Each structure stands twice: as C-alpha cells, then as structure tokens.
Amino acid sequence: MTMISKKLCEQAVPTPRHSSLARRLRSFPLTAIRPGCASTLLWHGAALFVAMIFLLPLVWMTIASLQPVGLPPARALTWFPAGVAWSNYAEIFRVIPLAHQLGNSLLVSTVGAGVTLLTASWAGFAMAQMPPRVQRWLVGLALLLLLVPANAVWLPRYVLFARLGLIDTYVALTAASLMGTKSLFVLMYYWSFRRVSVELFESAWLDGASAWTGWRRLSLPLAAPTTLAVLVLAFSHYWSDFVDPLLFLKTAARFTVAVGLRALQQMDVTRWPLLLAAVVVMIAPVMLLYIGLQVWLRDEPDFARRVLRRAFD
Amino acid sequence: MLRRCGLWLLIVVVMLAGCTPLAPYPARPAPLTFFISGDPADEAAYRALVADFMVANADVTVELLNIPSGGDFRRRLAADFAANTPPDVFLLNYRHLGPFVARAAIAPIDGWLERSSTLARSDFYPQALDAFTWQGKLQCLPQNMSSPVIYFNRDLFAAAGLPDPAADWTWADFVTTARTLTRDLNGDAEIDQYGFGVTPSLVRAAPFVWMNGGELIDEPAAPTRLTLDSPATQEALAWFVALQTGHHVVPDSVAEAAENSLSRFLNGRLAMYMESRRATPEFRQIEAFDWDVAPLPVGRQPATILHSDAYCIAAASHHQDSAWRFVEFANTRAGQRLLAQSGRTVPSRLDLADSPAFLDPSARPANSRVFIDAIPALRTFLLLPNWSDIEGVVDAELAQAFYGQIPLEVAIRNAEARSAEFFR
Description:
The complex is a heterodimer of chains A (313) and B (424).
Chain A: H1 2-12, H2 20-27, H3 38-65, H4 87-95, H5 98-128, H6 132-146, H7 154-163, H8 170-174, H9 183-194, H10 198-206, H11 211-222, H12 224-240, H13 243-248, H14 257-265, H15 272-297, H16 303-312
Helix pairs in contact in A: 1-3, 3-15, 4-15, 5-9, 5-12, 6-9, 9-12, 12-15, 14-15
Chain B: H1 2-18, E1 32-36, H2 40-56, E2 62-66, H3 70-82, E3 89-93, H4 98-102, H5 110-115, H6 126-131, E4 133-134, E5 137-138, E6 141-142, E7 144-145, E8 149-153, H7 154-159, H8 171-181, E9 194-197, H9 202-211, H10 231-245, H11 253-258, H12 261-266, E10 270-275, H13 280-283, E11 291-294, E12 304-305, E13 309-313, H14 320-330, H15 333-340, E14 346-347, H16 350-353, H17 369-373, E15 378-379, H18 387-402, H19 408-419
Parallel strand pairs in B: 1-2, 1-3, 9-10, 12-15
Antiparallel strand pairs in B: 3-13, 4-5, 6-13, 7-14, 8-10, 8-11
Helix pairs in contact in B: 9-10, 18-19
C-alpha cells in the first residue's frame, strides 16, 4: 500500500535524476520529504518505527553495559542510577583474554567469509550454466540441505575431523567454507547469476571468453549486491559461531570471542554489566562491516528501495 | 588472464595454508588435558591449582580447558568420548556420571587411592565417596560437597517481627513464616514481596520426599521404575507444589518469568530462597540488607541431598598415572583449600570443611555450620546410566504441576510413563 502511494508520489513530483549529488541527497531521508506528500512522511515514519524496534535492544544493551558491577539486576530500563562505569570495558579484557579471542575470531571470520565468497559464487555460477532440469534438481537438493538441523552434523563432523587430525586447528572451523558454508549462499548467487541474460554469455563465448572470464568479468560485477550480502552473512556466521569452536578446539588460547562470551555468561547476575560490555565489543565489528557496506552501497542510492519494490510488486 | 588466475589460486592456497598446523604433534610428551566448567573466577582458581601442580611436578604439563556452561560441557565430553579423544582428567557431578560409568569410560581410582601416601579414604566425607561409587568401586575423587539450605533476608524477617528460623523448624512453621512474609505492600492486589523462591525441580523437591519417608525409585539394587505415586512421596510432592498453587508464597510462572526468584532475593523483595552453597559468593556482594542461612525445615526424619563434583580420569587416557598425580595433588589439604577460597563449595575433606578455613565467622553467612550439620543426613540420587534423562523428565512434569498447569497426579503419571524407557 505504502509502496503504491510512494510511486504515485514520485510521479507527481519529478525528481532530478541527472546529477549524482542530487541523487545522493535524495537518498538521505530528511531531504526526501517533499511538501504535499504525506505518504513520504508516512513511509519514513514507518521505516523509523521499524528501525526503533531493532535499535532499542542495542541501546538498552549499551546502557546496561555501563552500569557498575555488583548491583542487583534492574527491574526496568534505567538511566544510570549508580553512575557510569566506563571501567567495565577495561575490566572485560582482564577477566577473559578478550583481545586475543577477538584476534582469533577476526582470523577465522575473514578466512571463512573470503573462501565462502569464492566457493559459493563458483558453485552458483556453475549451477546457473547447467540445463534447466539439472538446475531444478540442484535447487531442490540445496533447499533440502538447508533443512538439515545443525546439531545433527556435530558428531559426524567431530569424528571426521578427529580422523583427519584436524581437531584443534582452524581448518576444522573454516572447513565448511570450502563448500560455500551454507547452501543458502550458493542459492543466493545462483538466483542472481540466473538473471544475467543468456545472450550476454553467448556473445562472450563467441568472443572466446573462458568460464573464468565469464565468472570474473561478467557475472560477479553484475552480482555485487549479492556479494555484499553473502559477505555480511558469512562473516557474521563465522563471527558468532559458538558450537564449532567449542567442539573442535582443545587449546584455550585458540578460543574465539563467542566462547569467551559464554564464559562471562556463567558469572553471577550482579556481574552481568561485564557480559553486556563484551557483547557490545563483539557486535561492534559486525556493525562496522554492515555500516561500511551501507556507505559503499550509496553509490547506488536506490538499491534498497529497488529491492523492496521488487519484493512488493 | 592466466597470470590473474594464478594469483587468485595463490591467494586461496596461502589462506588455506595459514590455518593448517605445520607440526600437529610436538615432540615433547603430550600434555595432560583437564576439562572444567565454570565462570572466569572458577577458571582462575583452577589455573592457580594447575600452576602450583606444575611447579611441584616439572615433568608434567597440564592444559586446562574451561567449557563455560554445564550443558555445553557435557555435549563436548560426549563428542570427545565418541571420537575416543577424551580429556585425561575432568570434573563431573555425580548426577551426570551414569552414562560414563555404564560404558566403562572412567578409570576407577580405587587402586591409586589405596596406594597413595598422601591421601586416604578417611580424609573424605563418606557421603561424598558413596555418591561416586559404582558396583563397589570408587570411580572419581570428590572435590566438594554442598546441600540446599534456606537463604533468608534477615531485615525482612525483623520487619515482620519474626525471629530467625529455629534449627528444628517444621514444615508447618515454614509455611506460616512464608505466608507472613508474602505481602502486597501497596494495596494494588498484586504481591510485591514473596515469602519463598525455589526452582521447581526434582533435586529441590527430593529432600522433602525423603524427609517424609518417601522414595523416588522402587528397588535401589535393581531399579525398575519411579515411585512418585507412593503415598509418602506423593504427600511430600503435594506439599511442595502447594507452596505455589495453594499458599501462593512462591512467584507464579508469570511473575517468575517477569523477574526470577534469584533476582527478587537480591533486590530484597523475596524473603527466603532455597539454594546450595553456590549462591554464597554472589550474596556476599549484597549490601542493602543482612542475610544468613537456615537449615531446611524438618519433616518426619532428617534428610537432604548431596551436590558434589569429582575429578574423574578417562579410561582411554594414555597418561593415567600422571593424571592421578594431578588428582592427588588437587585433593591434598592445600589443593582443596585453594579451590574453597571462592566460598562457592564446601570442601569434601573433613579436616577442611569443619575448620576455620570454611567456617570463617567474619564472612557471611554467619551460620555456615548449617552446611556441616546437614552432612550426616545427606542422601544422593542413585548412580544410574540414564539418571540425567530421568531427572529431565521429572523436572519438566514437576514444573508444570508446580505452576498449576496440570494436576500433580497427572504430572506423576506422565513422569512415570515417560521415564519408563530409561529404566530398561
């Protein structure tokens, strides 16, 4: 409904589309409000409301992470009744080896997400080039794989890695990235590569392009938004993965930040401001990655809106 | 083109090589692995113990691994045992020992303890040793012991004009006290202060069953089923459940979900809380009110339940003798003393539990003797292969009855039916 009124609104007020500066400004919410266009206001109001729902827990977490340690848990959201304890953020690095664990997590997540981008896009590319019948079977198989519960593969994987002598190495943690981590990522690439017109490839093949060029020069640049989405999803998958490090690592020095967080969770509730401080520190890199990619995406300011419109239409 | 392709490949290879161990097995003797589960303070205490041990035993290296939560710890142990790469030493509660002893995954420590020159059976409370004995053999060496008590807010007692609970208070006294302390302070018909808080689980209800002369299973030697429906057991469970459903002195399920009993006690809005010794370090941080511990109210006969963790040595360990040296060291007076400093547990050594080291009168609770006085009446759950599963089933049903979602008789019937498969 909002989408339709928004479209009408856009037709009524033609917008300059030639200047890139104007486009940039247009993507900024407040400047997009035009007089006589209540639906725009409504649209942004709704968007802000949804954003608030997701932001409130983050705000509350940050406030709670700054409460002094040793007090009984608060019953409701409180604004610093006992002062602001910035020292919590120093204390967590003493209670657990957080800096070390953050480094480990960064290594695992970067390698995991990087390899995932390669393997998932290769697999998606190959799928998109196959005959339609095979494609349908592979999509079915990928969806089926998504339905396998994660805890069903813990033990088989553990035994497999133990036989291969990979227990207590980061190979065990990132091995799944060699298979695209999740079949969802392969499917995401498949779906966006499938949109690239066949004629484009046919002319490329005629010009003597190899499969590599087809993937690297044609498909990948056209699927940049998918790459970004897979990057964020894969990075946060490895970043927040808790069970794998717990099962596959034996040396405490190799533990990742998710395991460190679990250790803080075992503390008494009166010390939970420390837990929340560590959560803020843990979420920060993923937030930064997300915000960074958002800024990057502003080169294409209508991206999010275009995706939404397509979803509604 | 080719060059760029090669570059990509090189990047992948380097990335993969970066995470492959160059030398997976070092030349020096493999270190002893030791698994625990606890918070950072626990881990620090065990690290100190390990460091002390390695100073005294330069030829052995111990690698400590803390797997934070209890559930994850057991999951990890199960995976390690399944892959036949178990830790050499690990700490385990006797309630979770069953599956391991049933598969002979643990090396009994009887022989080592007999031969030991520094430890003797008589150093430890027999109640704790019995809990870890399976078919006449001591499986693991208990490090601590504890039992549930009633933590009470002395300020709330004084405000209501009540004296501290007497050592021989009865179930009826307890209910009267709890009812007096359950209050609607502002007249809005909602209870603001509860008299009692407890987790509705078998481990909390069991002491009352035994006090009432009831039993949980039919035949200790060869158990075939739960006996929750026997009159004495059912009567005790009915009394326990009625604390919430009848007397409303315990928060109901909605109130508990809104704020749990532990948080209510810490905030001074719940007068009595049933917990083992493990709550003590947390309660020591309370400054807003005075608190102490009281024994469980007395039924027909004295009874309470043991909580205890022990050091176990894996049967598949390749370093069993060094593992024993570590276990031996950890259970000397000095070793246990190091771990008892947290105040979270009661040492399992007689010479440490009943000594100023534990009964420090300057540290709260003032009445720490309650834990020592309860020892003669300690009982344990039987060491059964599937005991954790049985307990899980009973807990789920009991919680529903406790919060008035199903009648107790139905809960008992369900628990008996659902647990039947675990007795086979």
